[in-house]
Amino acid sequence: MNDMPRARTARSCTLLVLAVTAAATACAGSADRPSAARPYDAAAQISYNAPTGKRKADPDKPLEISSKGDEGRITDVSAVDETGHHLAGELTADGRKWRSTGSLSAGARYTVKVATEDEEGAPGARTLTYETAAAKRALTATFGPEEGKYGVGQPITAELSLPVKDKASRAIVEQALKVRSVPAVTGSWYWIDDKELHYRPKEYWPNDATITVTGNLDGLKIGDKLYGGASHPLKITTGDRVEAITDASDHSLTFKVNGEVINTIPVTTGKPGYSTRNGIKVVLGKEYFVRMRGTSIGISEGTSDSYDLPVYWATRVTWSGEYVHAAPWSVGSQGAANVSHGCVGMSTGNAAWFYENITPGDLVTVVNSYGDTMDTFGNGYGDWNMEWDEWRKGSALVKDGTDPNATADAKARLRPSI
Fold first, then answer.
1. What digits encode the pLDDT tens for the residues 241-270?
2. Do 42 and 119 share a domain, yes or no?
3. CA–CA separation, 363 and 283 (whole Å)
4. How many Å is the maximal CA-CA distance in the chain?
5. Which of 149, 152, 294, 378 is an S-S bond match for 408, by CB 3.0 to 4.6 Å?
6. pTM of the prediction?
């Protein structure tokens, strides 16, 4: 995403105009105090609204600098925090007062340089220090997945510590959450709800990419008495483009690496009433052994559909329990019929091969099933099932976007089915 300037980096056009005017005036200084002389100390000429004692300034209140008495005026003010961000402000036409117009950062230390001139036009200068108090409420972002190497389908997630509902505040947050990829990609954040965002490129990530995520929220004013806090950055990499495509009508799984077919495996998918979900899924993890019980998906014990089985070489693709796994009990149906409770089953040997050659973030797609389409959010990563134009509407930075307050239970962690 292209970086957009923060509001607090802007400089007032008024300041520039007045600075030019001040310089012209200073050239007409008196013979005994020429403009080329070192600026005098303007400490006695100005005052500012810093709190007394050890207290620090309220970041919700503007910084104000005033000229004392009737002698001289302020000609320019520059306020810069420790990160190099300038604080925007306005100077009155008579040079009597400067007031910040940009949002102050919380827990920040500003170096404020004030330029003045006396009644004869001689230049003065004073450098001040202005410190703001830390935020009482700090919004942070926790990024996912964990640092490591992933497939090209892995979305980036951001979990906020506090809800953000207002679109203007969301835009500030989103603008601060930076995702950079080498090679570069076009991508965007999508607000799933008030606290969770996902980021994905327009297309899949490039092979062998390095992706870094930073949350530049620290001290940033987000809303009324709400400021950002420090967020731990994230770095992940990608490998090859690995895609496993299951055709439920053909009872086969085609395994591709960088577009080349590497293996074709006979499989079984969900039988009527338990049809496997269609669409693109992203591998969530791998489990060598899983105990699968029908009761975990609402099947009563003792019924014809009930089961309680040890399952090996299990690759998870949904939180509700859809896997690609070994199913030695259904080898006779693999390649010929759909007899599972929703998972993609294959022989033990094929499942072990699949398990060893797949990684979290790789793409697992099901086509030609009678099942519903994979949920976009809440049951794993169905992000790629949304068209790019719709995805962009979930960004708070898109002017014609709609409010994406989707109600997805992304924390649901249900038990597996077979």
1. 999 999 999 999 999 999 999 999 999 999
2. yes
3. 6
4. 106
5. 378
6. 0.79
